[in-house]
Structure prediction request, 289 residues.
Amino acid sequence: MDGRAVAPAAGTVLNALATGRGSAFAIDLETTATVELTTDGEVVGTVAERPEADTGLIERCAELVLEEYAEDAGLAGPVGARVRTDSEIPMAAGLKSSSAAANATALAALDALEITDAVDRIDACRLGVRAARDAGVTATGAFDDASASMLGGVTVTDNASDELLAREEVDWEALVYTPPEQAFSADADVAACERVAPLAALVEELALEGRYGEAMTVNGFAFCGALEFPTGPLLEALPDATGVSLSGTGPSYVAVGDRATLEAVRERWADRDGTTRLVATRTDGTRTT
Ligand SMILES: Nc1ncnc2c1ncn2[C@@H]1O[C@H](COP(=O)(O)OP(=O)(O)O)[C@@H](O)[C@H]1O
Ligand SMILES: O=C(O)C1=C[C@@H](OP(=O)(O)O)[C@@H](O)[C@H](O)C1
Prediction:
């Protein structure tokens, strides 16, 4: 019994590290997970082409799915799994590779159990968030990023209660700049982020009014300040981009707007070390394949 699912990456509107409330939108870069059930009771993960990658998150995620649902699916005796991810999302770059890996694994495991339709996608998403907390790869649980990747569109969430406050389908183009470094969320300076809480509260207000572009830009300046990332990429996108921000805890930046504007920004960002990609936003989220 094999299962397979694909989950998209996401960009940030509001980083949740200041107040616990966050907002993100799905973009068209993907992680695929395959889950093969076994009878040895062991869960073993691998990440394609990244033998050094930490497999704790996807293993915990598959374990939680089996603990929660294997019996309901009619499986008795020890059940194990071989989990494999294959990803085009750079890891620890602020583009939510962890949320995509957890969502794809959760849905692939449910697919292997043949019970995808019996479980709400938002519950599968919460299970991935639990796995992320257990694996220690997150500061707040990152339900904002996970919900955007699971449901598609832009979501606003309370990560303290894993509650979805708003979801809307947006149809933007997004430009993503990823410098060559990595920044693991678990290592982010949460205390520094908490100092910009008044600005994060303003970003939340703007996002809940549907003013996502302005929300992103305020978020960008606030969190570049708190996390000491350069504001140059933000300024190079302004004033023409609809919104531009540091994505997550960095080091990537994401701008949204019309294609002509983003192509001009792309030329400016191309002078920097790293990669720039023009991608579509996604409204469909995680799906089995
Ligand atoms: N394709 C993947 N397969 C398995 N685990 C992954 C994958 N991508 C990310 N992860 C997990 O997520 C961690 C990175 O999470 P994080 O620092 O939050 O970065 P990001 O912003 O990309 O989500 C990795 O150390 C690993 O545990
Ligand atoms: O670990 C977390 O709780 C979070 C990490 C950040 O994202 P990245 O994982 O992309 O850095 C942030 O934007 C998000 O709101 C919450």
User: Anything to note?
Assistant: The chain has one domain: 1-289.
